[in-house]
Design the sequence.
């Protein structure tokens, strides 16, 4: 084989290799979740969705851009709060490319740019807050940092989905002071709750005593009313009984038509009852003075009664 044939063979091999390389560069596969940005001689031409993409070899190139939401973990950094306390902050930023053309041509490396922007936004937001606010208002930090970053990233075609503060760590001496403060606050709250409980207990006891006194007074009042009503009813019944007795005695006397002698006997019987009572003094009515004469008459009548019947 001559030298000319060898040169021709080499040239043929080179041509085949170039054709295969051109074919390989012309046929491209874009995976799901990404898009392909086609540039012609360095100038943007079009954006391809996932699938087979055919480009012109040698003059066009394809660059793939991930359109999925991507978490970007940040490095720990020291930030000074408004009350001059140095805290260590770490945050994770969730980003998503919404415009591949802007993401490629508006900023050189959007991953590095987002990291630098997040550091600046964290310093800016936490620098306006005290340590207590920074520790208790993480949601506010997330919202404010996201708002500051979106002002810039919207121009890059990148959306900030959310920001999560992973850690806010004060210095050890500050943590110790916070622990002591927390313990003191808990003891204070416990004493307050205990005093409030004692106060409420005293109030409940006083209210119970007051209610018991009221009910006792109401009971005594009702008892007195019942006793008075009972006494009044007894007096009424006693008076009615006496009236009925007097009426019956008077009716019996009227029915039998008593003689003066019988009346005198009744008066003497009444005087006898008075004399036998436990009183130390007996007062004889003026009208009863005639009873003495009536007694003499009754005695004479009783003495004459056997003589009239024929007895000695």
Sequence:
């Amino acid at each position: 084989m001559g030298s000319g044939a060898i040169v021709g063979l080499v040239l043929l091999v080179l041509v085949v290799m170039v054709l295969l390389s051109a074919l390989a560069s012309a046929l491209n596969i874009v995976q799901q979740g990404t898009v392909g940005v086609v540039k012609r001689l360095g100038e943007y031409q079009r954006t391809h969705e996932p699938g087979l993409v055919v480009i012109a070899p040698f003059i066009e190139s394809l660059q793939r851009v991930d359109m999925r939401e991507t978490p970007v973990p940040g490095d720990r950094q020291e930030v000074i709060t408004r009350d001059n306390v140095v805290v260590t902050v770490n945050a994770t930023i969730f980003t998503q490319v919404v415009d591949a053309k802007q993401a490629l041509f508006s900023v050189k490396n959007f991953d590095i740019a987002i990291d630098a922007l997040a550091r600046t936004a964290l310093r800016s937001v936490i620098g306006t807050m005290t340590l207590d606010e920074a520790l208790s208002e993480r949601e506010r930090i997330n919202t404010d940092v996201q708002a500051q970053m979106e002002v810039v990233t919207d121009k890059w075609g990148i959306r900030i989905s959310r920001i999560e503060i992973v850690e806010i760590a004060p210095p050890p001496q500050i943590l110790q002071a916070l622990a002591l403060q927390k313990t003191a606050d808990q003891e204070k709250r416990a004493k307050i709750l205990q005093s409030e409980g004692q106060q409420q207990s005293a109030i409940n006891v006083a209210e119970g005593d007051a209610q018991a006194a009221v009910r006792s007074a109401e009971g005594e009042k009702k008892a007195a009313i019942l006793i008075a009503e009972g006494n009044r009813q007894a007096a009424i019944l006693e008076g009615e009984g006496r009236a009925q007795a007097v009426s019956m005695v008077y009716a019996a006397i009227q029915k039998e038509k008593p003689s003066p002698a019988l009346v005198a006997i009744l008066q003497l019987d009444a005087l006898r009852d008075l004399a036998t009572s436990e009183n130390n003094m007996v007062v004889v009515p003026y009208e009863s003075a005639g009873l003495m004469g009536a007694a003499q008459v009754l005695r004479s009548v009783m003495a004459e009664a056997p003589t009239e019947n024929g007895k000695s």
